[in-house]
Amino acid sequence: MTKKFDGEKQDIESVCTYCGVGCDITAQVENNKIVKIYAQKDGVVSQGKLCIKGKYGYDFVDSKNRIREPRIKKSFLEKNPTLAQKYAGKLSEFSAEYMTCDVDTATSIAAEKLQEVKETFGGDSFCAIGGARTSCESAYSFQKFCRETMESPHVDNCARVCHSPSLKGMRTTIGEGAATNPYNDIYETEFMVVIGSNTMEAHPIIANRIIDMARTHNNLAVIDVRETKLAKLAKHNCIIPYETNLLVLNMMAHVIINEELYDESFIANRTKGFDEFKEKILNDPYANPKFMEKIEGYEYLAKMIPNIAREYAVKKSMIFWGLGITEHLDGSYAVMAITHLALMTGNVGKTGAGLMPLRGQNNVQGACDMGCLPYFAPDYQQPKVEGLMTPQLVDAMLDGKIKALLNMGEDITHIHPNLNKIDKAIEQLEFLMVQELFMTDIAQRADIVIGVRSAYEKTGVYVNAMRRLHLSQPLVKSDLPDDWEVLTEMAKKLGDGENFDFKTSEDVWNEVRKVAPRRFSGADYYRLERHRKRGMQWPIYHEDTPVLHLLDFRTEDGLGKYVYKQYQLRGMVQSILEKTFFDDSLNGFYLTTGRTLAHYNNAAQTKQTESLYSKHSEDVVLASVEDEGKFGDKIILKSEYGESEALTVKYTDKVKPKTLFCTFHHAKSRINAVFGDESDELILTARFKSVKVDILPVGDEIACG
Q: What does pTM read for this prediction?
């Protein structure tokens, strides 16, 4: 569609800017302003429905809080008098804290500072964190700027916070770390397992399909540490103790093997190492579901887990998971345990049977595909040099080895763990630059902030949770630069102009197709425009690939493999076994965190819409009704790493005693200060889904304990 950014009313198709579902949207635009967003009835992803964020959360585009002009901290200019003097004529007063200028001046100052850092401390004193909230073109440019222009291997994105264990676990076992099937295969499946995902809140348009099938066929199992909304429709509502995902998944494997429910032909033809895996499972005392009979309050799992395993094994089944699987000490191993179930039963590589990691950010799949990871170049190739992951970069900042950070759309001082430590690390930097839409928590700490276009103001490719490429187009016109344009300008000023010879986003994408041919060689803009409504799923050559692993897995020999990890007794289960868990004389509650439907991540965009902000204007703690009276309506959560601000408590029967749930959308809550450096042992994704906290009194309220 040819767009006119004038007074003419028109409908423009694009893609939603929120979660990884990647809904097709249509915006009604008048006078260069979005007046309505809706989904087409024939929308392949949306199916004519949007969640409240996608439908109403577009006020951020015109918000008075948008960063419309670059901001440079006066304190930075005072520390860099040569730059201040050189560009004094182009700087003007913005506020008591900031000066402002045009983008050309801001990128010139940034480039000169980066050059100074590079010459003084070396290229690897620079790092780049971000990229999953912008287009593939910008994510690709981001990692290229880091690796090639700045000659640093240290690039990372928010997959470190969420689904890196999915990538690690799936690549280890089946060679590819992405969803195996399209969403509509839900209608072809016979049984569904949702584990560690609050799907109705976090991925509601996928949940719609699951709900339709569950209501019609009663074929849903939900496994979680609390009762989510989706559990109301579950045939098996399986509430498990904290940190027992791997335990439960290994138990399912034990049942399938012990009762010989596995697919012998699939195992023989398409996998290797099963006999060794079988022996380890059968000789693991923790893998036998009878172990659950010893866990007070969870004895029913000794029968429920086998029932779920049996139904999964004998039917054409799909497994869906979210951050409730990955954000643990054993997140990668839990993902491997999920793929083991699919490999044993043949529930992968076919329509209606597969593995579905539910991605969080709108382009987290695309950012990883583009190489915004320290250990993967574009197309998941080996980089020349492996860099540090974000937690390691924070340590390097504290050690004085990392001197400069370029941050693109990743609010690390709000969303990442161990906030007190990160705060100290950021203070050690020589230079911090942020590209953002709003003055997020990290942007407020930056030396230079450059406002950029939102997803609704630019052209670009986004890859959703089912590997679907959608070429977005601008809904409204903006004079702000795109992220890749800012990076291109800085690269040229750093003497890397030939390497960044990009005039349009299509120029960037055409380079992606050459550099990442295993997935994108056939995905030119022309084809993506023609298939905008349907989208195309990578790998894309002459045609796209809706279902992965039809004939072979994407491993070197084409075979899936088993990598067994035994559950390690700890935390809540150990406490129950030792008879200390329910002792009210002992402080300590197990906390998990998650999203609510009205907001997205750090709420930077959603809180600009009053109807969304008013639904959830503060982070709230959910506690068990059985714990009501032990503390008041306001509490502070404290761990050995830090403490939250005062939080409102609501009591519910959906949460088990001595456990808590809290959202994390508002930076003022500082909920992530209670999480430390404990993380997945293979890939350093933080342990967000389980931490033991004490409850402190607020005002005249009593403390728990």
A: 0.94
